[in-house]
UniProtKB/TrEMBL annotation:
Keywords: ATP-binding, Nucleotide-binding, Transport. One of its GO terms (molecular function) is ATP binding. It holds the Pfam family ABC_tran. Signal peptide: none annotated. The keyword ATP-binding applies. This is Bacitracin ABC transporter ATP-binding protein. The keyword Nucleotide-binding applies. InterPro entries: AAA+_ATPase, ABC_transporter-like_ATP-bd, ABC_transporter-like_CS, P-loop_NTPase. Residues 6-233 form the ABC transporter domain. Belongs to the ABC transporter superfamily. The lineage of its organism: Bacteria, Pseudomonadati, Bacteroidota, Cytophagia, Cytophagales.
Length: 305
């Protein structure tokens, strides 16, 4: 069983009377890409700021590398690289000069600059001023800054925010290479569910400061039925009544389509038979695996009920 790189124990945090985090328990395995999912305002950035000791937790609530954060923060945070929201970049300096500023601050060897430029694929643009960088190049330069110290853990807060499709793909591939080829454990905060689904080995879903799920991505997909049935038909309102009489729950519907969770394929024939017997014309039946987006919406809706 891999050891934990990040552990939180009933982490609770208030802004005045507002409870931003409510007994948050996280367990980030070594070597994982850990997707930290939640809508805007759910508590993701607050959690990250606490992990970096920018906001202060209570004693015993946060461990990094199996040690208490507060009494060992200088040692522990030296093993952590972070990219929080938009990277701080001196636009009048070149990419290489920006990295030199960071290198001097932390006392890393000069050779590390060329190493990280190669990792983030900015070698050819290293001597170009940052004001001429695209947004994707700026994000990669920010990530290069986080890598200067050769950290064991990378904490990334919405690293694909605002990027165009090609920039998102570049960042995704870079994150996966850092994990597989360079052995980095990556804590990745995002609200872009499709990106997390393509990268993460483990996930946590947070909403309104509470953890709704934590564990393996595969476990999340099997947490419920895992299958949905999409039906296209001619009379949605009548079909809804028939389906509810069969004790099925409808997830969503529009003027032509009904979607509902099913347990297995026998449900498909049962529902289709009942619809036909009630003179409802069925145009299409399609069974699909439950997407991360559907799971996410179902979990966050439960909290609102």
């Amino acid at each position: 069983m891999p050891k934990s790189i990040i552990q939180t124990n009933n982490l609770t945090f208030h802004f005045g009377s507002f409870k931003a985090l409510d007994q948050v328990n996280l367990n980030v395995p070594e070597g994982s890409i850990y997707g930290f999912l939640g809508p805007n305002g759910a508590g993701k950035t607050t959690t990250i700021r606490i992990l970096l000791d920018l906001f202060h937790s209570k004693p015993g609530q946060v461990k990094l590398f199996n040690k208490e954060l507060l009494p060992n923060k200088v040692e522990l945070l030296g093993k952590v690289g972070a990219l929080i929201e938009n990277p701080s970049i001196y636009k009048h300096l070149t990419g290489r000069q920006n990295l030199e500023v960071v290198r001097r601050m932390i006392g890393a060897p000069k050779s590390r600059i060329d190493e990280v430029l190669k990792i983030v694929r900015l070698t050819d643009n290293a001597n170009k001023k940052a004001k001429n960088y695209s947004l994707g190049m700026c994000q990669r330069l920010g990530l290069a800054s986080a890598l200067i110290s050769d950290p064991d853990l990378l904490i990334l807060d919405e690293p694909t925010n605002g990027l165009d499709p090609s920039g998102i793909i570049e960042m995704r591939e870079l994150i996966m290479r850092l994990n597989k080829e360079h052995g980095k454990t990556i804590f990745l905060s995002s609200h872009i569910l499709t990106e997390i689904e393509k990268m993460a080995t483990d996930v946590a879903i947070i909403d309104q400061g509470k953890i709704m799920y934590e564990g393996k991505l595969d476990g999340l997909h099997s947490n419920d039925s895992g299958q949905f049935l999409e039906i296209k038909l001619d009379n949605v309102q009548k079909a809804i009544e028939v389906i509810k009489e069969l004790n099925y729950t409808i997830s969503e519907h529009d003027s032509k389509t009904i979607t509902l969770p099913i347990s297995d394929k026998t449900d498909i024939s049962k529902i289709n038979k009942a619809l036909v017997q009630n003179d409802i014309e069925v145009y299409q039946l399609k069974s699909t695996e439950e997407t991360l987006e559907a799971i996410f919406l179902n979990l966050t809706k439960k909290l609102d009920q």
